[in-house]
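Students often ask why inverse folding is considered easier than folding. One informal answer: many sequences map to the same fold, so there is more than one right answer. In these notes we will look at a single instance of the problem. The structure comes first.
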């Protein structure tokens, strides 16, 4: 068990299923730094921090094992998966192969009303980035990008990208927010919607390529 200070975990949400609520809070803790890569956490210790029994915590951690976010260690607990530079490059490469042509194709097929419906999520990405609200930022960013991809009508494609996003966990987000580097990336979501609404295929491809490259550049810093 780690001896480093243990910051408070995010409050459990409103779902009635403890397992789902704990899993969501654990994912949020991975993003915010409440759970640290490489550290080992036991289900009873985490349960005490949540104020629940160990059973839903253990079940939630097993869900995170399936997602590749943690590794089960017999008789010890769960180690938070460390994401390597190579893995980040691989995840981003796959995302680029999927997302750039898919989103570019929406210039010909997407209903303008459906695109405008994503504007509130784009605005929330900007406001949460400015406020340093990492959990809010990740949730709004997830809703925007998966909602945009859903307009292509391929549910499995959306699931694949969703899993890649979980595995990368927007690596280094805490340090980026502290240095004020999230806001420029956040503004690109509005730029992307504007290009899609203008039916400008080249502009959409350029923004998507720049946005994903921007994400990797921020990770590298």
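Output (designed amino acids):
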């Amino acid at each position: 068990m780690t001896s480093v200070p243990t910051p408070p975990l995010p409050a459990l949400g409103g779902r009635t299923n403890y397992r789902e609520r704990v899993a969501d809070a654990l994912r949020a803790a991975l993003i915010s730094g409440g759970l640290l890569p490489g550290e080992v956490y036991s289900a009873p210790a985490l349960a005490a921090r949540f104020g629940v029994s160990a059973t839903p915590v253990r079940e939630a951690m097993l869900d995170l094992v399936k997602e590749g976010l943690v590794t089960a260690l017999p008789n010890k607990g769960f180690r938070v998966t460390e994401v390597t530079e190579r893995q980040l490059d691989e995840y981003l490469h796959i995302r680029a192969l999927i997302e750039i042509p898919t989103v570019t194709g929406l210039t010909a097929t997407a209903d303008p009303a459906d695109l405008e419906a994503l504007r509130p999520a784009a605005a929330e990405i900007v406001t949460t980035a400015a406020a340093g609200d990492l959990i809010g930022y990740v949730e709004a960013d997830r809703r925007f990008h998966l909602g945009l991809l859903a307009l292509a009508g391929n549910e499995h494609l959306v699931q694949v990208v969703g899993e890649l996003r979980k595995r990368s966990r927007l690596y280094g987000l805490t340090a980026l927010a502290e240095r004020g580097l999230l806001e420029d990336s956040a503004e690109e979501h509005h730029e992307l919607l504007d290009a899609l609404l203008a039916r400008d295929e080249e502009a959409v491809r350029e923004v998507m390529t720049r946005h994903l490259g921007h994400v990797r550049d921020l990770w590298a810093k």
